[in-house]
Amino acid sequence: MALEQRPGAYRPPLQEVEWEVLPPEEKRKRQALEPLFKWLALIMDEFIRVPGTKFKIGLDPLIGLLPGFGDTGSALVSAFALIQAARLGVPRILLARMSLNILINEIIGIVPVAGDAFSFWFKSNARNYQIIKDHIAVPDGVSRRSDWTFVIAVLVFLFGIVCCGLLVSFLFLREIAKLLAGH
Asked: Can you tell me the distance from the alpha carbon of 78 to that of 71, in angstroms, rounded to the nearest whole number?
């Protein structure tokens, strides 16, 4: 039975309803990630401005100059932040993108001099911070086509690098076997 509206009867003002896609606790979890990744990006990738330029460097490429320990140490720092993101429910596709940024920085960073120069440019932590900022801005947390395209492209690239490495190793070992056999 509908209520009758008489002319001149009092009608309370309509209240605006605030719609939330995420429950408040999920919103807080997402927002807690931003300061962590912002701090990490600042310290590891953009701590010091190169005089006379707009280019900034951080501790990541500087730590990478230490042979053997540098690249591994900076990858571990990045990985701890990634673990926190996983604990707070960041979607797997975004975790994959962030992991690939760390992996690319680590793999190329192993190469002396060229790897350190790459770390100055690549800034994996700043890239991961941008991923977190974009994730916080999207209320539904749905992965986008660009996320999957990026992950697939990087996986294909890494597969190519591994295949080339195996080919070079095979050719190198074949030449050593020829030298040992006296051919």
From this structure: 11
Task: Burial-class residue 77 by CB neighbours within 10 Å (0-12, 13-18, 19+).
Answer: middle
Name the E strands within the chain: 48-49, 56-57
Q: What is the pLDDT of residues 111-148, one digit of tens each?
A: 778 888 888 889 888 998 888 888 877 755 555 677 67
Mean pLDDT is lowest, of 79-88, 112-121, 124-133, 158-167, for 158-167
Number of H helices, E strands in the chain: 7, 2
Tokens of 90: 């960041």
Handedness of CA 149, 152, 158, 163 (dihedral sign): negative
Q: What percent of the chain clears pLDDT 90, i.e. is strictly above it? A: 1
Which helix (H) or strand (E) covers residue 58, if one does? Answer: none
Residue 3 scores a pLDDT above 60: no
Q: DSSP assignment of 108-119, as one string?
A: HHTSTTHHHHHH
80 pLDDT more than 80: yes
Give dist(CA 44, CA 38) in Å, integer: 10
Residue 35 tokens read as 């300061």
Q: Please tell me what DSSP assigns to residue 138.
A: -
Task: Look up tokens 């941008």; give the residue.
Answer: 130
